[in-house]
UniProtKB/TrEMBL annotation:
Matching SUPFAM superfamilies: NTF2-like
Protein name: Nuclear transport factor 2 family protein
Domain of life the protein comes from: Bacteria
Gene3D superfamilies: 3.10.450.50
Native source species: Streptantibioticus ferralitis
Domain (SnoaL-like) ranges: 5-121
Amino acid sequence: MSADDVTQLVLGERQSRDRGRYDQTAECFAEESVVEMSWFQGSGADFVRETRGMAGRGDHAVHRLGPPTVHVLGDRALAELPLIIEWRVDISGVAADLATSCRSQYRAQRGADDVWRIVRITSIYEKDTLTPALPHTRLDIDPLELTAYRPSYRCLAWYMNRNGYRIGPNHLGDDQPEAVARQYQAEMTWLHESRTPAATANVRREQQS
């Protein structure tokens, strides 16, 4: 079924990235794809290349995934994947755990070869924490440094910016609900643009199967 195919697509994209299987990650993306998240905005191919470079610098996170929800209409699908980005980091010689809760929205499209591929990923940030990894240790962080960042991805932005990345203030986050609502509307508009006569016939066939 298409929903199962899309579920495996989005889970496979995250798992292959976490495991360093970048050729597999690249296969998940359509040729004309777009990725928008905190540290990267660009094509799917460039995202895979920059991810490989990030891991080579020792900046490697893993993703704890929840079950995605998937909506399929003809040859288009929307999936929303809840996840937590987990980093083991060093803060001035003290081991710490950085955890960022977010949800990634995936647009997927079925090609002429009947294979589903990702055409867009957009991240929406919820909250994050930065805590010592070991008991009886303390992170020496000036709280004033953190106040410059938005609460939906404050710790992530603070850590990545101090390590040479550029995390701006305008990413989607639950602290700006109007922007998030516009994002959801844009996703549903894209999905329903596929409601052509041929696409409608495909939906009916899938519902009958």
